[in-house]
Fold each of these.
Amino acid sequence: MPPLAFTYPGGPLVRRHGPSGYSDVQSFRAWLRDEFSFRCVYCLVREQWGKRLGEFDLDHFEPVASSPEASLEYDNLVYSCHACNLRKGKRQVPDPTQALLESAVRVHLDGRLSGLTDDARRTIAVMGFNSANLVRWRLTWMRIIDICQKNDPELFASLMSYPDDMPDLSTLTPPSNARPDGIGRSCYAQRERGNLSEGFIA
Ligand SMILES: [Zn+2]
């Protein structure tokens, strides 16, 4: 079992939302928060671990400098913490929605990561995921989650659950939406229907 807080998704991301036509990148934020389960696609830090203004960025997977035409394409945007966005910068990394999977990244109990595929290994190296600071950060959170799970169920539930301010995507009006059915499968809509699980792992 990988550490609970750092389980990468079980399979490649199949996008459920497809808004388009916005003239500014921030209009995609609500869609991306839901699409990426309110956590950073790279390091898995969660909004619930302390969301502060500016903590999460909308990262252009293909850098704008090399693909200016993709700057407002939803499928080129990923939800990333500010630190990972800075670390990535303009460098090319394999698509994290395809490369950073549970089957491709082994999370060790000492906080280190190892890649089981070329793309995962490359991402870990380029992003500096095994730097001393990041390993210490990961280990700290593994211990916090573990202690809470055993001793503080309320805090555990809070740290591992969805945020209170999930967006109601049905109220948004993008100029067009290639995947409108995804709104009904958003976390907000699932919670309204009472079938959103309490905690979530991936
Ligand atoms: Zn991150």
Amino acid sequence: MSALFEGLQLGELRLKHRVVLAPLTRFRADRKTLVPTELMKEYYTQRATEGGLLITEATCISPEGLPDNNVPGIWTKEQTQGWKKIVDSVHAKGGLISVQLWHTGRMAHETMRDHPMADPERLPTVSASDVTAPGKTGGTLSGEIDTYSKPRPLREDEIPRLLEDYKRAARNAREAGFDAVELHAAHGYLIDQFLNDNTNKRSDKYGGSIENRCRLLREAVEAISEEMPLSRVGVRISPQFEGTMRFFGASDSNPLELYTTAIKTLDQYNLAYLLLTEPRWFGGKFDKDHSKDPGFSMGLYNPSKFRHLYRGPIIGAGGFTPLTAPDAVHNGHYDAIGFGRWFISNPDLVHRIQQKLPLNKYVRETFYKHGSPDGYVDYPFYEDADKSALVPQEKIGASLESAKL
Ligand SMILES: Cc1cc2nc3c(=O)[nH]c(=O)nc-3n(C[C@H](O)[C@H](O)[C@H](O)COP(=O)(O)O)c2cc1C
């Protein structure tokens, strides 16, 4: 039997298999209220399986740091009730669901100041320091503004308020019936902006030494744990190294030491799980045939550096294929595998992996199609798929040579 189909205990969560839905922002929440929609319920329910873990898209903990329209929130009653319908529907299929808690920090979009859910007192957005994110915004807002704006450094006396926001989100998650919450501390968002030294220039107790830069991570975990037991709390972080994936310009002069300390810090808590992003290079170039995206052919970075530092279960995500995922579990590199893109295009991915059935290809253009069912709930289940359009599992991934395109 494939290692992916053995049971697994993640804190209080009992999984029957190890194919996890990775968190995926899809912009299908209600545009004005940021309440989860019926469409989202259909999407998550399609992907729910008996004893399978779904992790939701990043979900805003407050009106601070709103990145765009159509992302869900979990700070209002209405948003919480919207999530409850999704949770109930996933539970009805025997599935488990964890909600990813998000504060984007400097990745907020300035035009969200005009959004009905914006709070003028929470503008401009905050970060560790006033370092503007490079590049262009990926959002599809009306805006003439397509670069990131300069954030305001969060004052030390405001941090208790931020921690209250995390607590409220965790409380609402519990009320909505979520099995777990996941702190999004990865990918260049607020907590990662505190971790990395090119975004954190502070001289107070949240800046300077690596221990200080890990302080907010620790305090956020502790704040959340006041509302959700640690055995139902996960954390995502995204180690990165020279020449690997960078997230929105956040980087560190000594990433190995930084992420070693962060992981050792998290090891002190008895978390349900740690989710690590594999920083596989993708170079921004994609093959026309997405099954050949270069990241699918590159090796793992994290296990050799971090596995021995962390005693609890670790989920890996980023560039796994149906063929490489079982090996990663079998070899003890990871305890479970989060799938992103292949789970977008295959609502029945768990079944297809188990039965070694070919997969629907994903369509990148519809990943972020605001409010639209296209490319969201209309990918066929295997029985209904046009078999000539499917990609065999063993054809996913290219040679390392082509990964260096
Ligand atoms: C459309 C899209 C949206 C994503 N949104 C999130 C998100 O909200 N939170 C998060 O932690 N990661 C997010 N990610 C990263 C995924 O969780 C995952 O790490 C990534 O897709 C790589 O895994 P894959 O190779 O299986 O696709 C997103 C990725 C994609 C493609």
